[in-house]
Structure formats: structure tokens, C-alpha cells
């Protein structure tokens, strides 16, 4: 980044000149790896659009990343700037969106502690997303306490910014339900509306499957196409993509449902009429997997090439990434401290 541009960015990042807009957006990602196509269609693309209309904060959730990586904290620390570079490469503008780091905002940990008195263990154990994750991570009874309670920490993140809109993938819906339960309990104790309830903002593709079609695309499961994937990796992933196992010869009729290649074409191809024609041909017989995969590969290469190139520039300027994150984090502290003050006072803890 050129010097004068860098100075202007720094000044703007430290100013508190956001307009007073009613709806506030808070969303975030665990710092457990670089971002993938699921993030892009599930939430990131939406955030890029929304930043022009709303006051938006994006949280790099490093503390939440530790909840299943306590034994391997380096996985989290080494991915913080990767996530920030992915945001910028995808089009998040730090002059419009506040990008902040969860561990740099102590009020979030304090709020988590207060809220944890409002939620029972059995309620946490009923959370369907957490249930699935516990199973896939084979925790058994050795589940870290932080992992079981991470929905509470997420409630702290959302409420600390009084967010009303949360652009998320489908897996996060139970977290927002849990958040709103906490909001209602806290407001009941306070006998006034200190906190606000939030609404999810789901996109057209709110659960992108993994390349093998077995689960959702997920950073932690190594089943993803990353925004930073090389041309070669994209080609390899598309080649290995799950289709219809019974579609053996080109002339055989093929199944669209559960066919990951078509799910991705639905999610990423610009011309949906063209995709509808492909589906009709494939179902009738006469269209080979190789041809459809080639079309998908081209579409993903076109989408990811400019993102990958921008990302390379951002990742090369580490100090700029840190400056953006630090400025956003500092700007978020006052706001969350004020919510913490109100929550403490709802519990009568306001002697000084
Ligand atoms: P991890 O495996 O570490 O949990 P993840 O890939 O699930 O990582 P998160 O950081 O947990 O990513 O999720 C960040 C946001 O991206 C959430 O809003 C989540 O709903 C959304 N998201 C993640 N994976 C997908 C997906 N496959 N499809 C749509 N949205 C997704
Ligand atoms: Mg996740």
C-alpha cells in the first residue's frame, strides 16, 4: 500500500465517525484456518454487500477457536491474519466494516461469565450443532468445558455490539436461538430492555456441502476448497467431487439430488438458466461427469483467481493486517465495555 493511502486508512480506521443506523450487524469466523467457499456463499458475500448499508462488525473468533484446540493453540494464533487477509481479498473494506479480534476485547470474556449463570448444562447439551460437532470430533465425555459453552460466548459477542442482524450459515441458527434466550433472561432480571434480540440473515446457500458430499464444508475437517486454493488444488478438488455413483456411462440418466457438482453449480454459476439446461440433459442421459466438472472448474477458477491474487498482496503486508485488526479491536472496546457495565448493573454489581 502506498504511503499516503496508508496514512488515510489509518486516520479513518481510528475515527469514530459511523452514522447512526438502526440495524447493527455482528458476524465472525473462528480463527481455525483460512476461509473456504462455504464461508463465501454462506456469509462473506452478503457481508460485502451489507457493509454499504449497515454498521457492521466482523469478529475474528480466536478464543472460540481455542475451545477445541487448547492442545494446539498454534493452529489458532497462526490463522488470525489468514482470516483477515481472506476478508480483505473477498471485498470487506476496513473503512466500512470494523474487523476486530475477540481476545483483544476483554468485555466479551466477562459477559460470557455472567451469561453462563443463565444457561443450564442440559440446554447446552441439547444444541443440535454442538451435538453434531461433539460427535464428529469424537470428544465423548472429554469435551472441553469451553467447547460445550461456546454458544454462550457467541451470545456475548453478538450482544456486546447490540447486533440485530447476524449473517450466518444454517449451522449457526441454534446459536442465535440460544443468544435470544439469554437476552430475554437478562432483560427480565434487569426489568428493562438492556440487550436486543437478533435475527439471522441466511443466504441462498446456507450450508455448502464438503467436496465429498459427506458433511458441511468445514475448515477443521480438511474437506474444503479455500479462497486461497491454487489453480491446481481447485482442479484436483473438482475432479474428486462426489457425483452420482450410478452414473457410469455418459448415456446413463444421472441424479441431480445429492450430486455435489450440481449443488456447486447452483451456488456459484452466474447463468442459472444454463445450469437448468445442464441438469435436464444430465437427468435425461447424454451428459458426462467429466464435462460438467469442467464447467464447474472453469467457473470456480474465474471466481477464485482475483480473490487469490488480492489475498497474496494482503498477506505479504503483515504489518498492515495487524494495524487494521488492532484499530478495529480498539474501536470495539468502548462499545462492549458499555454493554458490560449495563449487564453488571442488572446483576446489582455496580458499587463502583
Ligand atoms: P470450524 O470447522 O473451525 O468450525 P467452519 O468452517 O465451520 O470452521 P466457522 O468459523 O465455524 O467455519 O463459521 C463461520 C461462518 O461461516 C458461520 O456463519 C457459518 O455458519 C458459516 N459457514 C461455515 N461453513 C459453512 C458452509 N459449509 N456453508 C455455509 N456457511 C458456512
Ligand atoms: Mg464451525
UniProtKB/TrEMBL annotation:
Entry keyword set? Aminoacyl-tRNA synthetase, ATP-binding, Ligase, Nucleotide-binding, Protein biosynthesis
On the tree of life, the source organism's domain of life is Bacteria
**Is Nucleotide-binding there in the keyword field?**
yes
Q: Which GO terms describe its molecular function?
A: ATP binding; tryptophan-tRNA ligase activity
GO biological processes: tryptophanyl-tRNA aminoacylation
Q: Does the keyword ATP-binding apply?
A: yes
Q: Which InterPro entries match?
A: aa-tRNA-synth_Ic, Rossmann-like_a/b/a_fold, Trp-tRNA-ligase, Trp-tRNA_synthetase
Enzyme nomenclature, EC number? 6.1.1.2
An example of a Pfam family matching this protein is tRNA-synt_1b
**One GO cellular component term noted in the UniProt record for this chain:** cytosol
- Catalytic activity, per the record? tRNA(Trp) + L-tryptophan + ATP = L-tryptophyl-tRNA(Trp) + AMP + diphosphate + H(+)
| NCBIfam families per UniProt | trpS
Family annotation (PANTHER family): TRYPTOPHAN--TRNA LIGASE, MITOCHONDRIAL
Q: Which family does it belong to?
A: Belongs to the class-I aminoacyl-tRNA synthetase family.
- Name the chain's protein: Tryptophan--tRNA ligase
> Gene name on record?
trpS
Amino acid at each position: 500500500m502506498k504511503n499516503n493511502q496508508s496514512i488515510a486508512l489509518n486516520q479513518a480506521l481510528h475515527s469514530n465517525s459511523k452514522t447512526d443506523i438502526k440495524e447493527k450487524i455482528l458476524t465472525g469466523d473462528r480463527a481455525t484456518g483460512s476461509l473456504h467457499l462455504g464461508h463465501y456463499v454462506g456469509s462473506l458475500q452478503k457481508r460485502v454487500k451489507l457493509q454499504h448499508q449497515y454498521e457492521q462488525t466482523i469478529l475474528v473468533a480466536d478464543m472460540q477457536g481455542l475451545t477445541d484446540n487448547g492442545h494446539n493453540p498454534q493452529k489458532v494464533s497462526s490463522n488470525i491474519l489468514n482470516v483477515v487477509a481472506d476478508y480483505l481479498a473477498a471485498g470487506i473494506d476496513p473503512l466500512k466494516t470494523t474487523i476486530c479480534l475477540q481476545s483483544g476485547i476483554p468485555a466479551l470474556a466477562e459477559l460470557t461469565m455472567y451469561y453462563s449463570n443463565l444457561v443450564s448444562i442440559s440446554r447446552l447439551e441439547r444444541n443440535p450443532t454442538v451435538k453434531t460437532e461433539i460427535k464428529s470430533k469424537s470428544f465423548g465425555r472429554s469435551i472441553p468445558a469451553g467447547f460445550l459453552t461456546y454458544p454462550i460466548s457467541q451470545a456475548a459477542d453478538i450482544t456486546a455490539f447490540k447486533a440485530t442482524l447476524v449473517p450466518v450459515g444454517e449451522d449457526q441458527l441454534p446459536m442465535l436461538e440460544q443468544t435470544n434466550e439469554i437476552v430475554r433472561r437478562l432483560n427480565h432480571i434487569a426489568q428493562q430492555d438492556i440487550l436486543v434480540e437478533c435475527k439471522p440473515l441466511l443466504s441462498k446457500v446456507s450450508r455448502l456441502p464438503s467436496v465429498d458430499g459427506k458433511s458441511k464444508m468445514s475448515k477443521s475437517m480438511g474437506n474444503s476448497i479455500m479462497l486461497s486454493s491454487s489453480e491446481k488444488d481447485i482442479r484436483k478438488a473438482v475432479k474428486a467431487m462426489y457425483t452420482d455413483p450410478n452414473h457410469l456411462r455418459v448415456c446413463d440418466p444421472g441424479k441431480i439430488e445429492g450430486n455435489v457438482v450440481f449443488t456447486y453449480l447452483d451456488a456459484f454459476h452466474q447463468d442459472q438458466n444454463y445450469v437448468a439446461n445442464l441438469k435436464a440433459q444430465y437427468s435425461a442421459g447424454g451428459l458426462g461427469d467429466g464435462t460438467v466438472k469442467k464447467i464447474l472448474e472453469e467457473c470456480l477458477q474465474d471466481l477464485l483467481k482475483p480473490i487469490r491474487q488480492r489475498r497474496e498482496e494482503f498477506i505479504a503486508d503483515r504489518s498492515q493486517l495487524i494495524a487494521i485488526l488492532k484499530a478495529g479491536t480498539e474501536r470495539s472496546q468502548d462499545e462492549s465495555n458499555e454493554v458490560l457495565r449495563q449487564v453488571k448493573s442488572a446483576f446489582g454489581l455496580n458499587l463502583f
